[in-house]
Amino acid sequence: MKVKITDINMEKQDDSTKRIRKDFGDIFQLAKSIESNGLLHPVVVDKDPTGKKLYILIAGERRIRACIFNGWTEIPVTVFSDMDDLDRKICELEENTIRQDLSWMEQIEAVRQLDALKREKHGAADQSHNSEGWSIQDTADTVGVSKGSAGQDIKLAKDLLNRPDLKKKVSKLPKHAARKIVKQTLQEEMLSLQIKRNQMTVSSDLRL
Asked: For the chain, which has fewer Cβ within 10 Å, the N-terminal or C-terminal residue?
C-alpha cells in the first residue's frame, strides 16, 4: 500500500528506539536509482502511538529522504501492527544488519544492539545446549554470519562504544584493521596497568 509521506512520523520515540543510522550517505545516488528502477523495498511502518501522525517509521528513513528528493508525496509501505517499542527496534535492526549501504561501524553497532535487545526480549541462554533464551548463535543465524564473526563484531562494537577516542582513531580504517588496532591498544593498556599496580614484573631481558 501507499501512504502520504507527511503521514509518517520519523522522529525517534525514546533512546530505545533511536535509529542506528548516523550517516545517510549520498542521497542523490539513491534518489537517482529509485527514479530509474523504482523503490524495490517498501519502508516499514506501524501505527503511531503518539497520535502525532498516522504511522511511525520503523525502517527506511534514507529511502524516504531519497523519495522526497525526487519530489514524491506518497511512498509504498509495509505496515506492522501492534508492535511495542522493543519489537520496532528489533525489526529496524534486523533490516539494517542485512543492508549493504551501511558503514561497517553502523553494521556492527546494529548487530550489538540486536543481540542485546533479543536477550532482553527472550532472556539470555546459558552454556547448556538445552537452555532456552537467546544466544550468540541465534544472533549469528539472524544476520547470516558465523558465530565467531558475530562475537567479534559485538565485542568490537562494545569496545568502540566504551572508547570514543578509539572509535575516532579507527573510523576511516577497514574493519579488520580497526579490530587489530583496538585489540592491540587495549592489551597494551591492560599490560601497562598491571605493571603499574605491581601485578606483573618485567624481567631485565624484556627491558632491553
From this structure: C
**Mean pLDDT in the chain?**
83
Cα separation of the two ends of the chain: 72
Tell which residue, 70, 74, 61, 47, has the closest CA to residue 11.
Answer: 61
Query: Residue 201's pLDDT is what?
Result: 60
C-alpha cell at 119: 536477550
Q: Which residues contact 74 (CB under 8 A, 6 or more apart)?
A: 2, 3, 4, 5
Q: How many CB atoms are closer than 10 A to CB 23?
A: 11
User: Model-level pTM?
Assistant: 0.62
What confidence category does residue 16 fall into, taking pLDDT thresholds of 50, 70 and 90?
very low
Chain-centroid distance of CA 30 in Å reads 20
C-alpha cell at 182: 583496538
For 58-74, b/e burial (b = at least 16 CB within 10 A) is: bbbbbbbbbbeeeebee
Task: Kindly write down the DSSP assignment for every residue of 118-187, as one continuous string.
Answer: HHHHH-B--S-TT--SB-HHHHHHHHTS-HHHHHHHHHHHHHHHH-HHHHHHHTTS-HHHHHHHHHHHHH
Cα–Cα distance for residue pair 107/113, rounded to 1 Å: 10
How far apart CA 8 and CA 4 sit, in angstroms, is 7
